[in-house]
Write a structure and sequence with these properties.
This protein is mostly helical and about 575 residues long. It is about 75% helix and about 0% strand. Among the domains are: about 140-225; about 250-365; about 375-405 and about 410-585, no CATH class.
């Protein structure tokens, strides 16, 4: 126990050094790692080394002192600068600390302001993001927005292929982005341009155009896929019909000059010229439509399916309506032409027209015959009636025949003044038996010479012969009996007019209103008898024979029963002969 107590009283080496040192040392300073390491080294030294250690320490201290002195002398500016910098750094660190404290106190307000700014700028940032996105895809957006303008330009320049491609691209975009309002708006604008292109293509069908242009227009309409094949064919026929109608309406100018005041011949020529122009326009227009429709809709490649029957029905309906239109015009116009020479020219033109249409299955020559037969019948009958009217006006009193421009009693010419010329006033020719026989055996186209003695009979005969000469150009065989009946009716009416004149002349003689002498009265009666005989025995047989034999080449003695004089004419001639004999005896 005493040994342990003694051990506890022994001091440590640092304590001994501290206590033995003349300077006051803190024992704790000798416990630093460097000091501890040095003290450990001292304890390991031998006695001699330990005794020499102070000398080495003194030497090292002197060297260090010299080195420090030298360093201080040579590097004192650095030490001064270091001191100044250290002082400045210390003050700066103090200021930094103060600033950091201020910053820390201001950070909550900064955070609050930053959040407010972020919230307020969120809309602006969204707009900027959109703008940046638009700027990034500017080229693509420009291409999309340019679609309507490009499509409109293509339609305006008739570049329909590019227009259809652009429209298809717009439809593709609309299907890919169904909820995008911009794409849908572009699609709507493109649809409007496509509708304009549709109208433009349909308008081509209504304008003057040849087959290639129409084929191209129909091809693009098919690609647009807005009309079925039947609807497209109907639209084609409607458009071409409208253009044909406009062409036919333009022909109406040919009827200019028909005002009701021109001559009958001029009106006939105008109607004939109008009919010819109309037939030419109709033939060209309808033939073009038929050939164009056949090429576009009916002619199919050998490996394609045949055209539907509805397409053939549409073409048949079109041609039927147009044929009916032509026939209606001919029914209305041909009777106004009347002149067989003009009708003959029209018939020739229509025959060629029907022959050309026969190549496309539209031969209408069979329906032309009844129309022209009716027109010839009515025209020749009218000319017979006009000639008879002129004859009857010759026999009427002067004021009646001259539209009553003077007041006063009627002035009727004497038979010698009316029927004979000044050179043959004293010669009143009565047909001889030989002359009567020559009517049946002589040339049917040579008038009897005796008619030249009576100018009114010559005028009337020439009027009838002019009608027959015109009929030579177009004389339907089926009209022989009808025309002969019309001629007999006209001759009967002319005979009744002559009888009326004779009756009026006899009444004047019986009333004593004539101041002529007995010789003059006898001579006038001879003229009446001669005119009546020449009319009934020469003029009537000659004109009837001129129609039957001269025009149709039918011998009257061969079918005399069929060509027998009508009862109306027989009665009129019997009355005329009776009146002639009565006037001569009176």
């Amino acid at each position: 126990m005493d040994e342990i107590a003694q051990d506890k009283e022994i001091s440590t080496l640092p304590e001994l050094l501290a206590s033995s040192s003349q300077d006051s040392l803190d024992p704790s300073s000798l416990q630093s790692p460097a000091a501890s390491s040095y003290l450990s080294r001292l304890t390991s030294l031998s006695l001699q080394e330990l005794e020499a250690e102070p000398t080495e320490l003194s030497s090292s201290s002197a060297q260090l002192t010299n080195a420090l002195t030298t360093l201080c002398y040579t590097s004192y500016p650095t030490f001064l600068s270091l001191h100044h910098t250290t002082s400045t750094l210390s003050s700066s660190l103090d200021a930094l600390s103060s600033s950091l404290s201020s910053l820390l106190s201001a950070l909550p307000n900064l955070e609050s302001s930053a959040r407010t700014f972020a919230q307020d700028s969120r809309t602006l940032l969204a707009s900027r993001r959109k703008a940046a996105l638009v700027l990034e895809h500017h080229d693509k957006l420009h291409d999309v927005l340019s679609l309507p303008l490009l499509l409109e330009t293509s339609v305006r320049n008739h570049n329909y292929s590019d227009a259809l491609l652009l429209a298809q691209h717009a439809s593709t975009l609309a299907s890919r982005f169904p909820s995008n309002p911009l794409v849908q708006s572009v699609k709507a604008d493109c649809d409007a341009r496509v509708h304009s292109m549709l109208s433009q293509l349909l308008r081509v069908l209504h304008e003057q155009a040849k087959l290639p242009t129409l084929f191209r227009a129909v091809g693009f309409l098919r690609k647009m896929n807005v009309l079925s094949e039947q609807e497209l064919a109907l639209a084609f026929l409607s458009g071409r019909s409208a253009y044909l109608d406009s062409t036919l309406r333009a022909v109406e100018v040919e009827k200019k000059g028909i005002d009701g005041e021109g001559s009958v011949e001029r009106e006939r020529e105008i109607y004939a010229r109008y009919s010819k122009r109309y037939v030419d326009a109709w033939r060209e227009g309808v033939h073009d439509v038929v050939t164009q429709y056949t090429t576009i809709f009916l002619d199919r490649p050998s490996n394609a399916e045949p055209a539907p029957s509805e397409l053939h029905v549409l073409l048949t309906t079109f041609t039927t309506l147009r044929m009916q239109q032509l026939l209606d015009l001919l029914r209305d116009t041909l009777p106004l032409v009347a002149d067989p020479s003009l009708l003959s020219s029209l018939l020739t033109q229509l025959t060629y027209c029907a022959s050309s249409f026969a190549r496309v299955g539209l031969d209408f020559r069979a329906v032309l015959g009844p129309l022209f037969v009716s027109a010839v019948r009515s025209g020749v009958t009218r000319e017979f009636e006009d000639a008879t009217d002129a004859w009857s006006e010759t026999l009427e009193p002067e004021d009646t025949s001259r539209t009553r421009t003077r007041a006063g009693p009627s002035v009727r010419k004497k038979p010698s003044q009316l029927f004979t010329s000044s050179t043959s006033a004293t010669a009143h020719h009565i047909p001889t038996a030989t002359q009567l026989e020559s009517i049946a055996s002589g040339p049917p186209n040579v008038p009897p010479p005796i008619l030249g003695s009576y100018p009114p009979l010559v005028v009337y005969t020439n009027a009838l012969l002019s009608t027959l000469n015109g009929l030579r150009l177009l004389a339907p065989a089926s009209l022989l009996h009808d025309l002969l009946a019309a001629l007999d009716s006209a001759l009967a009416r002319a005979s009744r007019s002559l009888v009326a004149y004779m009756r009026a002349f006899a009444d004047e003689l019986s009333n004593g209103s004539s101041n002529a002498s007995a010789e003059e009265i006898r001579r006038e009666k001879e003229v009446v008898r001669a005119v009546g005989t020449v009319y009934s025995k020469m003029l009537v047989p000659f004109v009837r024979r001129a129609l039957v034999e001269g025009l149709y080449g039918v011998k009257m003695d061969v079918i005399a029963a069929e060509l027998e004089m009508r009862e109306e004419l027989k009665q009129a001639l019997e009355e005329l002969e009776g009146r002639s004999e009565d006037g001569a005896e009176a």
